[in-house]
Amino acid sequence: MIPIKIYLYTEKLKKLRRSGLGKAINHQMKALSTNKVLYTTKFCNDYDILHINTYFLKSYLLCILTKTMKKKIIFHAHSTQEDYINGFIFSRCTSKLFKWWLINCYRLGDVIITPSEYSKQLLLNYKYLNNKKIYALSNGIDLDFFKKTKLSKNSFRNKYNIKEHEKAIIGIGLYIRRKGIVDFVELAKRLPQYKFIWFGYSSLKFATKDVKKAVNTKLDNLIFAGYVEKEAIKDALVGCDLFIFPTLEETEGIPVIEACACKTKMIIRDIPVFNDWLDDGINVYKAKDVNEFEYKIKKILNNELPDLTEESYHIAKKRDLKIIGYELKKIYLSLK
């Protein structure tokens, strides 16, 4: 064990556990345990560093308290104004207020960690954060968990009644516009010869009209599987014929790394967050819009494009939690 104790705090963790943030927190815990870093998720007075993952009011007040105790703070910046804008109703008109609040929270950190070089550059352009030490560090992947097995493939295809000759395409995300769920449903309409299954759930109470319409679409080849545990996500990634990630904005995109780990064929949206680590036609395929998604789906499922899954697996290997935990440990020790 390193001679420091980390208070790993995530406000509203039970409510967030179904989100990408919830996954990120679980990854942090595993990464720290693997690297023998002592941490607690319960309040105490004997922690050395507060590692905080949320920006709600209690999180902010805990940072203020930690400052008075002369202890160090790492603020993990999982959110930006850019990934907030295309979320729920009223998100566009409240995005400036959201950004103001994020800045007030993040600036309390002695250092900031964010999941990608892209989100790091966004934060460096925010007022009051451009003089902060910001680390770009992936949320990571439990590589051992996502090993490809025949049992996983059969489990997925049996559960959703996918016959041997049928092609299954999956998507993963909450019911929000930013995740590209509207385009996913449009592709299901255009490609009735394939089965489309969307994994993930969030209340439609705050969803935009186009998302509500998409989720309420009834098609013979479209299934909304709802929220499932990580074992079912692994089964789906192993058992599907193609994973598409039509997201409009991300700070990293954990499902993409999971797909890399499972050696799943995939098409992702061509957006800036993926520019410096995923290359079109090299380790993934990218699409700018629905038309390009449709074109490449047909090409891949007809075996008219090369299989890139071995190349994409190297992306996951570099983000194994053993490596991420080691990098976290180095950041902690730099603050000692």
Characterize the structure shown.
- This protein is an alpha/beta fold and 336 residues long.
- The protein is built from 14 helices and twelve strands.
- It has helices at residues 13-16, 20-34, 57-68, 81-85, 91-106, 117-124, 150-159, 181-190, 209-215, 230-239, 254-261, 290-301, 309-317, 321-335, and strands spanning 5-9, 38-40, 49-52, 72-76, 111-114, 133-136, 168-172, 195-199, 222-226, 242-245, 266-269, 285-287.
- The strands form two sheets. The protein has a six-stranded parallel β-sheet, sandwiched between helices. A six-stranded parallel β-sheet has the order 9-8-7-10-11-12, with helices on both faces.
- β8 (195-199), α9 and β9 (222-226) form a beta-alpha-beta unit.
- α2 (20-34) crosses α14.
- The protein starts with a strand and ends with a helix.
- The mean pLDDT is 93.
What does the largest sheet look like?
Answer: 6 strands, parallel
Number of strands: 12
Rg: 20 Å
Question: How far apart, in Å, are the first and last alpha carbons?
Answer: 14 Å
Strand content: 15-25%
- Neighbour order of strands in the largest sheet: 2-1-3-4-5-6
What is the helix/strand order? EHHEEHEHHEHEHEHEHEHEHEEHHH
Mean pLDDT: 93
Helix tally? 14
Give the overall shape: globular
Percentage of residues in helical conformation: 40-55%
Low-confidence stretches: none
Overall structural class, as computed from helix and strand content, comes to alpha/beta
